[in-house]
Write a structure and sequence with these properties.
Belongs to the aspartate-semialdehyde dehydrogenase family. Helix content is about 30%, strand content about 20%. By secondary structure, it is an alpha/beta fold. It has a 6-stranded parallel beta sheet with strand order 5-2-1-6-7-8, sandwiched between helices. Strands 10-9-11-14-13-12 form a 6-stranded mixed beta sheet. It has a two-stranded antiparallel ribbon with strand order 3-4. Strand 12, helix 8 (about 305) and strand 13 (about 310-320) form a beta-alpha-beta unit.
Amino acid sequence: MAGKPTLAVVGATGVVGLSLLSLLPTRDDIWGEIRPIASSRSTGRRVSILGKDTVVRELSVDSFRGVDVVVMAVPAAVAAKWAPIAVEAGATVVDSSGNFTLTPDVPLVVPEINPDAAKEPASGIVASPSAATLMMVGALHSLHSAWQLTSAVITTFQAVTDAGVAGALRLYDETMELAGNQSVGQSPGDVRRMLSDLGSSPFLAPVAFNVIPWVGDEADQGATTTESAVRDELRRLLRVSHLPVAVTCVQVPVVRTHSVSLHATFAAETDRNDAVRILTESSNSVVVLDDSANSLDDAWPTPVDVVGADPIFAGRVRRSEGFPNSIELFICADNLRKGSALNLLQIAELTV
């Protein structure tokens, strides 16, 4: 590798790709050329890279020529087709699609947990976990190291940017349609009737003034693909292959930043103050925001308070009565930054 390596970002015009490009000024200057790539729909568009407008290239075999690392912020079907092509062209691929999560020779990497796994992967591909997993795995890993995790019951509250720009626009459109009507949401079917003329939605139900207990597609045993991914990714990252994990993923009317309510049970008896100390002292990107004993002001994280931030924020840390081996906590993390773009960029840096 002569000089600084070349980084290509496939999906550069999507919400994750744009977030990744916006993070570059905050990182060490290790890249030479940074090449934005997208589908033919975005050919000719310009994106800002380190303050310079750069023309987006169309995704093709030639677009990988001379590239050292390819970050793929694209759907699984696109990654499945193009990741092997990029590897064949001589690049290392960092993928966020979930397509390679369970592939044995593709390491699943969170830099705070297993950074060495990103170096010289046998397949040429490194996988990054889903945003739903990334917001909680650092905290779980720290507590697991102390007390040995034996099960987890998880409810995620996921922002509409899970569905990209289309998800955010749909929430804005629905909110505008419903705003100002103080009787809406008080009788069966009224919300659906008011939104009936808005056209197709990326969601299975109205998302404004509502929550939807379904994120992703249908998977096995009544679970969704997102719920299965969280279970499988946590087991792999924590190296507990048969860990009991119960997950419910809920779509909520939040533009950006996922949250999770977590009930974690361990082999040893736990302590609330020890949990706070472990989370605070570990290298896990977790910031504990939990001062409810003294004041309810800023006592715990919420999405509107942590959006745009890189750390993961944890609060409501407690041990519930009747569960001496369990810890409860509430976590928030920006799904487009640490939940996606930052982890991809950190892995890309590790590969070189």
